[in-house]
Design goal:
mainly alpha, two-stranded antiparallel ribbon, 4 helices, 2 strands, elongated
Length: 111
């Protein structure tokens, strides 16, 4: 880490932690803050390198996102996509159709 600005590391760590807690993709998070996702990934890489976590066994590490699932009496799958946007999927939809629906939904809510 650069020693020119002693507060820089702490600011970068706060932004990275806020992003990770937000549950948002890098693109969504950065869109709200007028940042480049490339910059955010670079900051995370710099922090990990500084902490000695940057080494991997060659396998690409991918950030996993988990969503809260609530089982109700309804047989309809309901996904909250942020804000007041809710996607309700009837049980008649098969896995391939659901994949297409989710891809389309993701594109429609992108920045």
């Amino acid at each position: 880490m650069s020693k020119q600005d002693p507060g820089r590391e702490e600011r970068l760590r706060r932004v990275i932690e806020e992003w990770e807690r937000s549950g948002k993709t890098a693109r969504e998070f950065c869109c709200d803050r007028e940042l480049s996702a490339h910059t955010l990934y670079g900051w995370r890489r710099e922090i990990r390198r500084h902490d000695g976590e940057g080494k991997s066994s060659g396998a690409s590490k991918r950030r996993q996102r988990f969503v809260q699932v609530e089982v109700t009496a309804s047989s309809c799958l309901e996904l909250s996509l942020g804000g007041d946007l809710v996607l309700r999927v009837p049980p008649s939809v098969d896995g391939d159709q659901l994949t297409e629906i989710l891809i389309a939904a993701r594109k429609s809510i992108g920045c």
